[in-house]
Sequence to fold (345 residues):
Amino acid sequence: MTATSSTAPTASTAPADAPAVLDRCRALVRPALASAVAELHPWVGEMAAYSLGWCEVGGAPAPAPGGKGVRQALAVLGAEAAGAPGRAGVAAAVAVELVHAFSLLHDDIMDGDAVRRRRPAVWKAYGTGPAILAGDALFALAVETLAAQPGGAGAVRRLSVALNDLVRGQADDLLFAARPWTGPDRVTPAEYRAMAEHKTGALLGCSAALGAVLGGTAPGTAAALDRAGRHLGVAFQIVDDVLGIWGDPAVTGKPVHGDLRERKKTFPVLVALGSPAAGRLAPLLDSDPRGAAALIEEAGGRSAALAEARRHLTAAESALAEVPLRTTAVDELRSLLGFFVSREL
Fold:
């Protein structure tokens, strides 16, 4: 069963113009991003371009574009929200896009995920060693990109904090897999929230804050944008959990009940395991994904997940309201909040 739009988290501004905002930001950032990738060793650069969705194995242009460009859009809009032109945030956008690509390369290896965006992951297409090398190159290029900017030392420090949080979140996520479904050692929703903020929210928050920092904003404004991005990351991850159980495979590119088959400790599962249904649910999680999905929904896991995503969207909106920001850019940021987390719901 696929969730309907009536249950989706909402933001105060309708996301109707969000695709146009993403297109505008990608068009601004793409030349600088392509120029940075062109500096890499040709073989490594091909893997980087493949990971970004620009080419196929061997270097032939890809027939379809890559990802939505969420983080680069946040960097551009962060600069604009602080009163600077969008181009002031381009270096930040390039850096965070490179770091995001690096993290996905390594995540797919750690998680054993063979498919990324409906085609072989880089490690399946080129090999594990080459994929690790390409990820390392992307990370180094991101640091070099920021360090070359005026005030680059502070920008690199901010990126380093986000990366440390990302690693912390990934470590927790990996450790969650070895913990039991029930009992005193089970994963709690609070632990999940902390993991999601680190693993997903840290880089989203850093994206918006870095754009503002390179645009010359005050520290308080950058901190508010960082908080908004972190809340967006938690909402984004929770909605991804809902899609991983109930999403339409034709839309998500994932098999139905895929996260349950992989025994992932996602937010809807953790909520249901904290309910009176836990005793019935735990055995199903190991043997019957379809039955587990039905019981999770019956126990309130799905509705609680969507409510939690809405709560974090509201918190992101509140963070944006805490500091003076340019109205047009804030409106576009708000349009993206709903768009990012209501996708396919």
Residues 1-16 have pLDDT under 50 and may be disordered. The radius of gyration is 20 Å.
